[in-house]
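User: Continuing from earlier, I have the next pair ready.

Assistant: Great, send them over.

User: Here they are, in order.

Assistant: Folding the first of the pair now:
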Amino acid sequence: MHKTRYNALSVAFQISPRGPLLIKAGGISANPTLPDMQFVRTYHPEKGETVYIPGSSLKGVVRGFVEKALRTLDDHTSWQWACPTFPDEDESCAKKLGKEENSATIYKNSCGACRLFGHTRLKGRVAFTDLLPVDEVKTEIRYGVAISRLSHAVAHGPFEMEVAVAGTFEGYLILENFELWQLGLLVLAFQGMNSGLLQIGFGKNRGFGEVAVQVQEARLDEVTSGMEIGLWRGLADFVSDEEKTRYGLSTTFTLNGMPDPLRTEPLGLYTRRIYDPKRWDEVAQRVTDKLGTT
C-alpha cells in the first residue's frame, strides 16, 4: 500500500505551554551553565542553537493516548483495539506478525494503533516533524527534591530543571494513505491536549506538560479522479473491493457534506484543498462526531 499515494494530509499546528514544560535532553551537556535537567536543544541554520520539541517525543505521547482509547473499546473484530505496549510481549502485533511476509496480512491483523503508528513489521501512516520555536521561548529554572518514603527527609537533591513557561512551537503532522478513522483518533488526541487530559514531556505528576494546540492550516491532497469538494475519502474509497478485503479496510467511515475549503489548487494528478483554522475546526468536529458512531 505504501507503493501508491492516494491521499495525504499535512497539518501545520502550534503548541504553547500552559504551565511549565520540560522535554528532557538525554545525557549531560558540555555547557556548564545549563541545569541538571535541561530542555532538549538542536541547531537550526537560521535560529542557531534552540530549544525544541522532537517530533518523536510528541508522536510517542499521542500514540500512548490513542492506545488507551482503543484498549477501552477492545473490539477485536475491527480496528478498535490495541496490542500490548512492549513489542517483545507475545500478544504484541510485532511479535505475532514477526514472520509474516504479506503486507496486506500484516496490516489486516494489526491493531488500530499499529495500523496508524506502525510497528517493526509495518510502516506507520503518520509522522510528526520537530516543533521549532516561532519566536522567543521563555525558560526558567525550577528546583526539586526527592523525598524518602521511609524518613520523609530529602533523599536526593535539590536538582535543577529548565522549563519552558511561555512561547510557541510550530511543526507539522503528516498523514498519508490514511483511513478516516485514523484521522479521527489524531483529532481526539489534539482535543485531549487542549482539555488537559493529555500532557507532554517530563514531570506530569508535578503539574508539568499542559499545553494548548492550535491548527494553523491543513492541506488535503487527493487523487483528482472522483474527487468532490465536500467529500473526504478514506483509503477504502480509492482501491478495489479485493484490496479492501485483503487489507481489512473500513468501509463504514465516510464523510460527506464537509465544509468548503478556503481554496483549492490543482497539482497534476492530485487536487489540494486548503483549510484555515475555522474551517479545520468544523472538519475536526465532523470527524470526531463520526468516530463516536462507528
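And the other member of the pair:
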Amino acid sequence: MASTSWALLLGVALWSADGANRFVALDAPPNPYWVSRTTAKLITPQWIGETGVEAVIVLAIDDLKDPPKYEAFLRPILRRLKQIDSGSGMSIMTVRVDPADPQLQKWLQEGVSLEVHTYHHPCPCLQGGASGLTTAKETFDRCVDLLNQIPGHRPVAYRMPCCDSMNSVSPRFFTEVFYRTTPNGHFLTIDSSVFHIFSVNDPELPERLTRDSAGRERFRKYMPSDRLMVNLIEDYPYPYVIGGLCWEIPPLMPSDWDAQHLNGKCSPVTVSDLKAAVDAVVAKRGVFSLCFHPHGWIRDDQVMEMIEYAERKYPGKVRFLSFQEVLRRINRNLLAGESLRAADGGDNGVRLLDLDNDGYMDVVIGNERTRRTRLWLPGSGTWQEGPFPVPLVRTVDDQRQEMGVRFGVLQSRGFASCLVRNDRVAGLWHFDGRIWRPVPNGLAGLDGDDPVFTARQGRDCGVRLRDVDRDGRCELIVANPDQSAVFSWSENQGWGRLAFRLPAATQIVDRHGRDAGLRFVDLDQDGYDDVIFSNAERYSVDLFVSTERGWSRRVLSGVRSRGDDAIPMIVRADGTNNGVWFSYGHLWVQNEETGKRMPDHVERRTYDQLLTRRTESGAGRK
C-alpha cells in the first residue's frame, strides 16, 4: 500500500469501546494501544499533589553512552530548569555507562534520573527469529541491572530503541520481557515508547493548535511518509496502565528525529509545533514526554525555547519532572502510597477504572495491606476514600495470585459492579457512588452442579463481564476448556443463561488459566464485537449476528497443521503472547519473527482480509 494511502488510514478517527465496556481492558491481554479519546481521563491534578499545576512535561533524552557529550548538551537546559523551580528535573535514557562515573552522581543530585534504553540498542528490539526473545530480554535485563549498580539510584522507566522511527513496540515485549524481573530481581514500572498525537478530532482543542498554517494536521504530519508506522495513540495525553504492571507516559509525536525527518535539522518549524504541543497539553491538563537526542537534530537552545514558552505563558502551571519524580507523585498522591508492582515485581492489587461513569479515572486497591476505594471528585478536585470489599491479589507460597475479581456495568446508572467467586470469597457488589453494597442474590443462576468460578487456586477461569448486545449492561461470559456460556443479569432474578455461547472450539483461557488466543474485535464495523480466535493449532472468525443467535456466522476457520495459516497466531504453543493487536482496521503482529524480516517490521491483515480470506501482498505468512 502506498504511503499516501497509509497517511489517509492513520487520519481516520479512532473509536474504542466505552460505556458499559469501559472496564474490559482490566481483564484483557496487555495492549499498549488500548486507550482513545473516549477513555476516562487521568488528569494531572489527580496525581501531581500541587495546587495550580495543570500539566507535566518529561524531558527525556535518549541514547546515553558518552556522558561528557550529554553534559555539554544538557548543562544549559539543567541550569534553566533549576532557575524555574528547584524541584524540576529530567530523564536520560541510558544505553551503557560506568556506574562509578562521578558525572552520574552530579546529575542525580540535580534531579536527573537515569533510565533504561537497553544495553545494545537493537532496532527493533524483537528480531532474530528463534533466539530473538532471549536476546531481547538479555539486552533489557543487562541495562536494568547495570543502572541499579549506580550508588543511590534505582531506574524506573524504559524507552524502546527506535520507537520514534519504526514499529518496535509489541504486546509480546511487555508480557515476556517488561513484566518479568531481571536475573538480579530488578524491574521497571514506567514505559515511554507509545507515541501520542494531538489530532483534529479532539473537540476540546482549537484548530489553531491541531492544524498548521498550511492546513495540515500539525502533529500527524510527522508520521514518516516513507514507511508505515503505527506505534501511536491519539487524543489521550495522560498516564495509563498497560496490563496492570506498567505505567505508560506517552511521548509526543514528533520526537526530534521525526521533526528533522520532515522539516530538516534544527528547524524553527519544529520549535513552533512544540510550543503548540505545550498549549495543547495544558488545555488537556495532561502529560507528555519529549523524546530528543544530542545528535544535531535539535539544539539545546531550541529545547530551552520551549521551556521558556511554557514558563512565560503558563507560570506555575507546567512542571518539568523526571520519570522518577512522576512515579513518586503517582504513588503518593494517586495510589495513596501504593504502587502498581509489588516488591517482587508482581501484581500489587491496584486497578484504575471510572467507577461512577463521570469520565475520570478512580482507584481501587486490594492487597495484603489495604482494601481501599478512591473516588475522584472533579468539582472539588479532591479524593474521597472508602473501603473496598475484597482482595484483588494474594500471596501463596511466595507467588502473587490474582483473585479473579471482575468489574463491569450491571446498574442502570452506569456505576461499576464487581463480581468474584474463588476458593476463598464469593459475591457481587454494586458501587452506589459512595460505597460498595453487597447484592444478596448476586451469584444466583451461577450455582448448580457446575458453578461458575472466576478463579480457582489463582488460576483464571475465563469469566469476563462485557456488554455483548450494546444495551448498556454487561453480560457474563465464561469460556474455559470445561465451560462455555453467556448469562444476562436481572436485579430481581439474578443471572440467566442465554441461548448462545462463544463459538465452538474457542475459549478465553486454556486449562492452565492462560490466554487461549481469543479477542473481541468489531471486524465488520456494525457496532458489535466479533470473535477472532487463533492459537498454534487452529483459528476462526465468527461474527455477531443478533442477541438471539450470538456469534453464529463463521466466516473463516482453519487448522494450522494443514498449512492453512490465514490468521497469525495470537498465542503460541507455549502459551506466550505472539505480539498481536488490533487498530486502524488491521490486525498487526510485531515479534522476533517480523522484526527485520517483514516490511515495516510487522505482519498485518486488514479486517476485510480476515473476513474474505485474502492475504495482503507483501504481508507474509508464518
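Worth noting for the second one:
Residues 47-327 form a domain with the TIM Barrel fold (CATH 3.20.20.370). The first strand starts at residue 55 and ends at 64.
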